[in-house]
Amino acid sequence: MSIWRRLGDIIHRIPGSCVLIDHVCDALRATFGTSAERRHAAFSVSMIALSAKMAKADGVVTGDEISAFKQLFEIPESEKRNVARLFNLAKQDVAGFEAYARKIAGLFSEGAEVFEDIVDGLFHIAKADGMVHERELDFLGRVAQLFGLSEPAFARISSRHIVPEEGDPYLILGIDRDASNDEVKRHYRRIVADTHPDKLMARGVPAEFIAIATAKLAALNGAYDRIRRERAFA
Q: Tens digit of pLDDT per residue, the chain (234 long)?
């Protein structure tokens, strides 16, 4: 049975009045046998739930934000209704987005790279209507804080999404401006390798979540090209 089919079975059984994230996390532990399966499922559920909360952060859930959410996953036609149910329940859950983020933080080890992947995915939705609103940025910053991401790390992630072609390329790459050309090259190659879809899947990101890697690579490549032209190295 596919992971989406099993997630669909869990979602279908959720009572409308439950504390959603508690129910789903308990079901994940009971239903998925391996740690890799639990990470995959937990990531998918966290993205659905937090996406619904974040889309509501500025007061209105737009069609563009829903479309952006759908771009992040290839959901089987037979499970789209269940995913929509989870999305709608998440918007109504009295636990609030901080409870979701804390639960999700507990599903992964401290400092796990998957936290940055989740924030990247949420930014993808936040900017779908053409800009990241102040309340959305506050929401994203608080989620990042609950995940244990530092302020410099959040600034680096933000810079990749908010007009990256105008942002500080050194901040986007996460490297000191005084780094040598060779250090810039080595750092760039390492973070590009870490952004490869295979690496994302290894840390629990679903294979369908390719939009994160694609957008991140575009921002990293753009920043590196700007530094390379500025410094005139090959």
A: 466 777 777 777 666 555 566 666 666 666 766 777 766 677 777 778 888 888 777 777 777 877 877 777 777 788 788 778 778 777 765 457 887 788 778 878 888 888 888 898 889 888 887 888 888 899 999 999 999 999 999 999 998 888 777 789 999 999 999 999 999 999 999 998 888 877 777 776 666 566 677 878 888 999 999 999 998 875
CA nearest neighbour of 124 among 205, 42, 35: 205
Report how far residue 41's alpha carbon sits from residue 95's, in angstroms, rounded to the nearest whole number.
20
CA dist 87 → 58, 161, 200 (Å): 17, 24, 23
Q: Give the whole-angstrom CA distance, residue 197 versus residue 77.
A: 24
**Contact status, residue 42 vs residue 107, Cβ threshold 8 Å:** yes
